[in-house]
Amino acid sequence: MIQKNEISALNFRRLTGIIYDTCGIYLSIDKKVVVEGKIKKRLISLGYNSFDEYFSFLFTKEGLNTELHLLINVLTTNKTDFFRESAHFDFLTGTIYPNFIKQKVDGFFKKQLNIWSAGCSTGEEPYTMAILLNELKCKNSNFGFNIFASDISTDVLENAMLGIYKLDTADIIPQIYKTKYLLRSKDETKKLVRIIPELRSQINFSRINLLEDEYNLPTKMDVIFCRNVLIYFDKTTQEKVLTKLTKQLTTEGYLFIGHSETITGMNLPLERIAPTIYKKIE
User: Given a cut of 80, is residue 106 above it in pLDDT?
Assistant: First the structure.
């Protein structure tokens, strides 16, 4: 039983400070009750009887090494859907793809479109990309693509790699794609679907903290989706992250952000092409 039902003001300040320094997420005081509810699950699972007891462990060297990233898993919000903000995917297939297949480098047509889903959560975004890009590949055998997907939470990455979803979350996927790319659970009572193995194998999942100095990506990206991630950062952190993301783009590469996000007032080499869609300029 939890003996003390709230986090002390001191521990909350220490917690918010270390979360901000580690991953850039700003937790204001009005989030305190929500944070307490989420952390209480960690207390119960670890057998601690109070928040003070838990934080006494968390702020030790061992706690910071072993528990902090698990706590970040608990605290990070992971809301996403298939085909979310569909205008972005229309732009990817209707504008970026036609332009890409016409591009030449050193006299040769480019063969691989490199795209990164930064903050991919449970994987619906990169799997949506994979479905649409596979459809384009069927129409143009010379077209190829690489999809990289990352998140700071190891929990959601594990779910993304499994590619298993509740049946109702797939309702938005057009039936023609459901038939082609989803497998229905043999146990009908579970009401689950799974992305087919061929599609799962096309996505490279990895844990990336967007506050890190180096992202260790294998190549520069032609397209980066970083949607509904920046809203958890303050303005200073947003600009730092966007500066690093822009450096990961190829010349004239594209950056997509969420519809509640903006780069207004930031000094970035980006040109607005459409709402929340930007092109890198030199």
Answer: no
Give the span between the Cα atoms of 76 and 173, in whole angstroms. Answer: 26
pLDDT, tens digit, for every residue of 44-93?
A: 888 888 899 899 999 999 988 888 888 888 887 667 899 999 999 999 99
**Dihedral angle over CA of 50, 53, 58, 63, nearest 10:** -120
Pairing verdict, β 144-151 and 112-118: parallel
Report the phi/psi class of residue 89: left, alpha or beta, with left for phi > 0 and alpha for psi in -120 to 50: alpha
d(CA 196, CA 211): 33
Q: Which of residues 65 and 223 earns the better pLDDT score?
A: 223
CA nearest to 43, candidates 16, 70, 9, 62:
70
d(C-alpha 253, C-alpha 102), whole Å: 14
Left, alpha or beta for 121 (phi > 0: left; psi -120 to 50: alpha)?
Answer: left
Query: How far is the CA of 2 from the CAs of 15, 104, 233, 265, in angstroms?
Result: 19, 63, 31, 46
Q: Within 10 Å of residue 74's Cβ, how many Cβ atoms?
A: 15
Find the DSSP H helices in 24-153.
Answer: 32-46, 51-58, 61-66, 68-75, 86-91, 97-100, 124-139
Instruction: Identify the pLDDT of residue 202.
Output: 96
Model-level pTM? Answer: 0.85
Please tell me the distance from the alpha carbon of residue 61 to that of residue 55, in angstroms, as a whole number. Answer: 12
- CA distance linking residue 161 with residue 200, whole number of Å: 7
pLDDT in tens, 2-45: 445 788 889 999 998 998 888 888 888 888 888 888 888 888 88
How many Cβ atoms sit within 10 Å of the Cβ of residue 270?
Answer: 21
